[in-house]
Amino acid sequence: MTEAAIQTTDLTRDFGRVRAVDHLTLDVPPGIIFGFLGPNGAGKTTTINLLLGLIEPTAGHARILGLDPRTQSEQIRTRSGALLEFSGLYERLTAEDNLDFYGRVWHIPPAERQARIKELLTHLALYDRRRERVSTWSRGMKQKLAIARVLLHRPDLIFLDEPTAGLDPVAAAALRDDLEALVQREGTTVFLNTHNLPEAERLCQQVGVIREGRLSAVGSPDMLRQQTGHPQAEIVGEGFTPEVLSMLQARPDVESATIQNGHLIVNLRDSARVAPIVTALVGAGAQIEEVRRGQASLEDVFMTLMQEGER
Amino acid sequence: MIGDITTVMTKEWREFFSSGGDRRSGLIVLFIIAAILGVYLPFRMGQPWITSPFMVLSYSIYLPLILVINTIADSIAGERERHTLETLLASRLSDRAIILGKLGAVVGYSLAFTIITALIAMIAANLHGDGSFQVYPVGVFGSIVAFALLVSLLLASVGVLVSLRASSVRQAQLAMSAALIVVILLPLLIYSTLSDTARQQFNSWIASANWATVGEIAVVLILIDFIFIAVVILRFQRSRLILS
């Protein structure tokens, strides 16, 4: 059996009276992009710090690439890469100097280092600008360079903490494309901290949802949708008045009904059928143009898990 | 380990010499000081500069003091302020390699700058001479190099400790500048409060200082340096820095 890239058992970390990570038990198989989802302050960054051996756990234990972060943190950091909250680039230096420095840090021989820098920067369309100071670059370009830095030494595992945070949608999409392509090509395991759910839905083969330090759910996005998300109907039309919404919410086969971008989104209970709901809507005076039945998005699953946690 | 220390030192130097803005104005101040201690004063004094006690004091204490304070504040507080420290700590580098690399970069820079200034001063002093070319006595020049190294190491260690506690480069620089004022003014202040007899005794002790005294002072400095470096290594801990 292939050894898990990340394995934690009851991993816990307290800061004074605050429990940042609470009995986290997790298995991340190698070669996948694992999304670690949670709102701000949920314990995502603390988890990365624990897994990298940067801080000690209060209780529990972990194995990263088969190594113990308490006693073998240097070996873990040697075989992994991390893009933390900030890009961590030396802005006074050029892009090439930044990568050269980290190439030396990871003891990559000079010829191989130069070839690798060229390969990564060319792939990210940054090679022609390699001699420019990083301070003159846009945030999107800096994040791309930071991704190149993380992959420079061909790590077995990389940790990314909100890599697209603060980027405009175009830059974020470009970075996601580059990241996906590079990770596929290199076969690296990725532990991706994010609260960007469409990003996780697109990139991740498995996700874990953390709330107040506790793991609420873990599995593939499809599995979570089936387990946690309700079947859904998206109805396009007119006349979805507050009275119509109240009427729908009172029905036993409807979990919730909301208007999103002018469309009526009805979350159905279990195996409820859509036809009786459409009939009721028409009876209440609504005009229906189109009905689409589908699964809840990862965002719906996430919101449901957050609401369940609050109860 | 040595390779990692060199890697950090090289990065620090590259960053230092490719910086602009505030750092450039700092460099201008340094060059003015170097112009005074390396060209103006030696040229005015001529060959007597080569054996003057003021020369020894300038190159072994005051120049390293100014050079180190101007650069060390940036070492930790600067990395923290620019959000590069976390990434460095998440790398495979050991705590010791990072901190010794940073100390080495500042000390190396200070020492190189001091030696170059002293050599330029020697040329400048000979321009106002009797036609012969005088060089520093070997022992004197060796002492300058040794003391510049020991003083730089001490100041850099103190600077790292200040920098570790400071929340910004500005705060670290202010603390170091305050220390600089104390270090420069305190001896003068103490000297001015001495009685005439005590002052005469001190002057005669200075005048009679021989190589043995110099050696004793050097040994004391080496011990103090070791203590401060040990404290720096103990204080520079990944987990503490990540949490701060």
Low-pLDDT residue intervals, each spanning 5 or more residues of chain B: none
Largest interface: A-B, 31 and 26 residues
User: How many domains in all of chain B?
Assistant: 1
Structural class per helix/strand content of chain B? mainly alpha
**String of helices and strands of chain B:** HHHHHHHHHH
CA(first)-CA(last) distance of chain A:
39 Å
Number of beta-strand segments of chain A: 13
The main sheet of chain A orders its strands as: 5-6-7-3-8-9
How large a portion of the residues of chain B is in β-strands, by DSSP E?
under 5%
How many individual helices of chain A?
Answer: 11
Cα distance spanning the termini of chain B: 26 Å
Average pLDDT for all residues of chain A: 86
Structural class of chain A: alpha/beta
Structure explained in plain terms:
- The complex is a heterodimer of chains A (311) and B (244).
- With 311 residues, chain A is α/β, with parallel strands linked by helices.
- Chain A is 37% helix and 28% strand.
- Chain A contains eleven helices and 13 strands.
- Chain A has a six-stranded mixed sheet with strand order 5-6-7-3-8-9, with helices on both faces. Chain A has a four-stranded antiparallel sheet with strand order 11-12-10-13.
- In chain A, a hairpin with a 2-residue loop joins β11 and β12 (263-268).
- The model of chain A has no long low-confidence stretch (mean pLDDT 86).
- Chain B has one domain.
- Chain B is built from ten helices and no strands.
- In chain B, α2 runs antiparallel to α3, α3 (53-81) runs antiparallel to α5 and α5 packs across α6 (138-165).
- Chain B starts with a helix and ends with a helix.
- The interface between A and B is medium-sized, with 31 and 26 residues.
Which labels suit this protein?
A: 311 residues; alpha/beta; 4-stranded antiparallel beta sheet; 11 helices; 13 strands; B: 244 residues; mainly alpha; 10 helices
What's the SSE blueprint?
The complex is a heterodimer of chains A (311) and B (244).
Chain A: E1 6-15, E2 18-28, E3 33-37, H1 44-51, E4 59-64, H2 73-79, E5 80-83, H3 95-105, H4 110-123, H5 139-151, E6 157-161, H6 169-186, E7 189-194, H7 197-203, E8 206-211, E9 214-219, H8 221-228, E10 232-238, H9 242-249, E11 254-260, E12 263-268, H10 275-283, E13 287-294, H11 298-310
Parallel strand pairs in A: 3-7, 3-8, 5-6, 6-7
Antiparallel strand pairs in A: 1-2, 1-4, 8-9, 10-12, 10-13, 11-12
Chain B: H1 2-17, H2 22-45, H3 53-81, H4 85-89, H5 95-127, H6 138-165, H7 169-193, H8 196-207, H9 211-235, H10 238-243
